[in-house]
Design a protein that fits this description.
alpha/beta; Rossmann fold; Dihydrodipicolinate Reductase, domain 2; 2 domains; eight-stranded mixed β-sheet; six-stranded parallel β-sheet; 10 helices; 14 strands
């Protein structure tokens, strides 16, 4: 499994660190607009090729997969071009800006017999699988609460008049896309698409959401997802049922420690052995690729489609509009 990367941000460093732990998987090329930007990572991980021309990355015959970790608004076009050139794709979350873009990519991957994955940690974590296994012990659910809040250093720049990509509607940024998307994946992979969804957001004058609350109504319970880049919080997930509750410490993205409380009994659930959360998703993608398990790949794409459909409804309910909405 030979990978070429697009992007040089923090997440690419984490990705490459995780990839180093996967047997028979390695990065063989990187793309960056400027060669000097990619050099530190290339040297750190002994990557032979740095491209400043995307076309050369797309057509490099040594590459099986392209990992897209660029600003959100570029995910669709770069994934599309990679697929057109016969490359499998791992695209960082949020998968695309709109449902339509997800549909186009999924069809193209299927038509060309290629694999396409959304890079989302949560649903591939061993502790998340333990949650799925034990959640029925809670009985009839009533409330699900998720909070993932992380004060962004780029928020300071926004307050000073700059417009960082993550807070720029032109780059499909915002708290919902960048941070609350983990909560959506957590809830939707467990319970499916809700009956209704609304998003109430704190918005900057440029129209982007800096924090907000998604409320999802299911037939028998309510799920609330809080995501913030303008404040800090205790991050957690609480799932409350008639027989007890389940507590995920430090938020849905990592599922680092899970505790199940049933009346007077407390059960700790933990089977994760590394702090690099991307390791588990890469392990899954490698297994699917090695086994040519296209059915599993496309099942994951169905989940990504569900998340994108809820994400788009939530975003539009708060009147957050991206350029891709006009296409």
């Amino acid at each position: 499994m030979k990978i070429g990367t697009i992007g040089t941000g923090f997440i690419v460093d984490v990705f490459l660190s995780a990839l180093r732990e996967i047997e028979d998987a390695r990065c063989v090329a990187m793309y960056s607009r400027k060669e000097e930007t990619a050099k530190p990572l290339a040297e750190k991980y002994q990557i032979a090729n740095i491209y400043t021309d995307l076309e050369k990355l797309y057509t490099d015959p040594s590459i099986d997969f392209i990992y897209v970790a660029s600003p959100n608004s570029l995910h669709f076009e770069q994934s599309y071009q990679a697929l057109l050139n016969g490359k499998h794709v791992i695209c960082e979350k949020p998968f695309t800006s709109t449902v339509r873009e997800t549909e186009i990519l999924t069809k193209l991957a299927s038509d060309k017999g290629l694999m396409l994955f959304e890079g989302i940690t949560t649903i591939h974590l061993p502790n998340y699988q333990l949650i799925k296994k034990h959640i029925n012990q809670l009985g009839q659910l009533k409330l699900v609460q998720c909070n993932y809040s992380q004060y962004s250093s780029r928020y300071d720049a926004l307050l000073k008049g700059a417009t960082p990509n993550v807070f720029n509607p032109l780059f499909a940024g915002g708290a919902l896309a960048d941070i609350n998307i983990y909560n959506l994946h957590f809830v939707i992979n467990l319970f499916g698409i809700p009956e209704s969804v609304t998003y109430t957001a704190n918005k900057h004058p440029n129209g982007i959401d800096t924090s907000g609350i998604v409320v999802m109504q299911y037939a028998d319970f309510i799920a609330e997802c809080v995501g913030a880049k303008d404040t800090r919080s205790m991050n957690f997930v609480l799932i409350q049922g008639e027989n007890g509750y389940l507590h995920v410490e430090n938020g849905a993205n990592g599922c680092q420690k899970v505790s199940l409380y049933l009346k007077d009994k407390e059960i700790t659930l933990n089977s994760q052995t590394t702090n690099n959360l991307l390791y588990y998703e890469l392990l899954m993608f490698k297994e699917i690729f090695d086994n040519k398990a296209f059915d599993k790949c496309y099942k994951l794409l169905e989940h990504s489609y569900s998340v994108m459909s809820v994400y788009e409804k939530a975003r539009k309910s708060a009147e957050i509009i991206f350029p891709a909405d006009q296409e």
